[in-house]
């Protein structure tokens, strides 16, 4: 649970009921609309929850160590070295007062123990690794002299300076045009295969999840509502929110009329109901959905990872789909 202090006293949870694993070498997509708690969840792994926010309950285990209860000095040894982070906006993540090369040299010296000359050479190598042409020249450039796509590649190189076991990419393509988005996703995929690191990809785009992820964790109103392999999520979603997201995603072949929208709005943390947080927007909700908190119901555990959904109807969607298909005939 991640909480923030309220003006009138006490703490307000903004993320709770979140739990998932990331295995070595796999990519897990953390997906949901803006405000669902994706970024707060990602930042909590690094101990970088903004402001006075803090992990109030639960554990964040990394290689057996609980990052949530770790002293800052010890956590700093993980942050940047064993866990890399790519922020949403590369232009704000990069320091405008320093060259790209100097921003890479500093963590290389700190985390890898290199002297200045070797760190400089490694910085050039990393810029080349992420597909930046003329890396020697870019080392001498300032962030404002780079395009958005080039700045994002430099930010990825910065995240790789510690040779991390886990890379957290927070909406890494949001601020980029479509062509550059595809290039960055291809780059992340190839880097992961080459370096063997695990990755958490934070995104609101289901298309990105389908393209690059092995498993998906769907969040809504501060909770995980579904988890499964990408194939399971896209072919047999178990939570009505996930199903609604998929229906509102554009198909490759355009269809007539507007895309289906999800009626209603996401409740604010202070307005979270006692029961299912999606119930007020769900066409299939019953009184039982609102009566009490709904736990994650595990279904068909598989080698690919847990298959679970926070829905009391998780076992009945096949029948619902069958009835809908029969009615359409």
Keywords:
Rossmann fold, 3-stranded antiparallel beta sheet, 13 strands, 329 residues, 3 domains, alpha/beta, 8-stranded mixed beta sheet
Account of the 3D structure:
This is Peptide ABC transporter, ATP-binding protein. Keywords: ATP-binding, Cell membrane, Membrane, Nucleotide-binding, Transport. Belongs to the ABC transporter superfamily. Its main location: membrane. The chain has three domains: 21-77 and 164-213, Rossmann fold; 101-163; 225-250 and 269-329, no CATH class. It contains 13 helices and 13 strands. The protein has helices at 38-46, 72-78, 90-93, 100-112, 116-129, 135-139, 148-159, 178-195, 206-212, 230-235, 240-247, 287-291, 317-328, and strands at 2-5, 11-15, 27-31, 54-55, 61-62, 65-66, 83-86, 166-170, 198-203, 215-220, 223-229, 297-298, 308-309. The strands form three sheets. The chain has an eight-stranded mixed sheet with strand order 7-8-9-3-10-11-13-12, with helices on both faces. The longest helix is centred in the middle third of the chain and has 18 residues, at 178-195. The chain is globular and about 65 Å long.
List the helices and strands and how they pair.
Layout: E1 2-5, E2 11-15, E3 27-31, H1 38-46, E4 54-55, E5 61-62, E6 65-66, H2 72-78, E7 83-86, H3 90-93, H4 100-112, H5 116-129, H6 135-139, H7 148-159, E8 166-170, H8 178-195, E9 198-203, H9 206-212, E10 215-220, E11 223-229, H10 230-235, H11 240-247, H12 287-291, E12 297-298, E13 308-309, H13 317-328
Parallel strand pairs: 3-9, 3-10, 7-8, 8-9
Antiparallel strand pairs: 1-2, 1-4, 5-6, 10-11, 11-13, 12-13
């Amino acid at each position: 649970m991640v909480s923030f202090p309220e003006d009138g006293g006490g703490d307000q949870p903004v993320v709770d009921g979140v739990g998932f694993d990331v295995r070595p070498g796999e990519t897990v997509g953390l997906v949901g609309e803006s405000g669902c708690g994706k970024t707060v969840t990602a930042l909590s792994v690094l101990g970088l929850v903004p402001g006075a926010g803090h992990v109030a309950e639960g554990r964040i285990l990394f290689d057996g160590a609980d990052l949530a209860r770790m002293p800052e000095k010890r956590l700093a040894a993980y942050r940047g070295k064993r866990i890399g982070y790519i922020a949403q906006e590369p232009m704000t993540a990069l320091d405008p007062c320093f060259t790209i090369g100097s921003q890479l040299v500093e963590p290389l010296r700190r985390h890898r123990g290199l002297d200045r000359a070797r760190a400089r050479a490694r910085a050039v190598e990393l810029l080349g690794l992420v597909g930046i042409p003329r890396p020697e020249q870019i080392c001498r450039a300032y962030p404002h002299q780079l395009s958005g796509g080039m700045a994002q590649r430099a930010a990825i190189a910065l995240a790789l300076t510690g040779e991390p076991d886990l890379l957290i990419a927070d909406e890494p393509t949001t601020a980029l045009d479509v062509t550059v988005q595809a290039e960055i996703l291809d780059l992340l995929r190839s880097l992961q295969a080459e370096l063997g690191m695990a990755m958490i990809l934070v995104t609101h785009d289901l298309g990105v999840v389908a393209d690059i992820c092995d498993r998906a964790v769907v969040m809504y109103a501060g909770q995980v509502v579904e988890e499964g392999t990408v194939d399971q999520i896209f072919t047999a979603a178990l939570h009505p929110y996930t199903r609604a997201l998929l229906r509102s995603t554009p198909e490759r072949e355009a269809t007539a009329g507007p895309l289906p929208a999800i009626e209603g709005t996401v409740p604010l943390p202070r307005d979270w109901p006692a029961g299912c947080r999606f119930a007020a927007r769900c066409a299939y909700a019953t009184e039982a959905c609102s009566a009490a908190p709904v736990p994650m119901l595990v279904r068909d555990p598989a080698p690919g990872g847990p298959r679970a959904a926070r829905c009391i109807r998780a076992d009945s969607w096949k029948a619902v789909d069958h009835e809908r298909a029969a009615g359409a005939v």
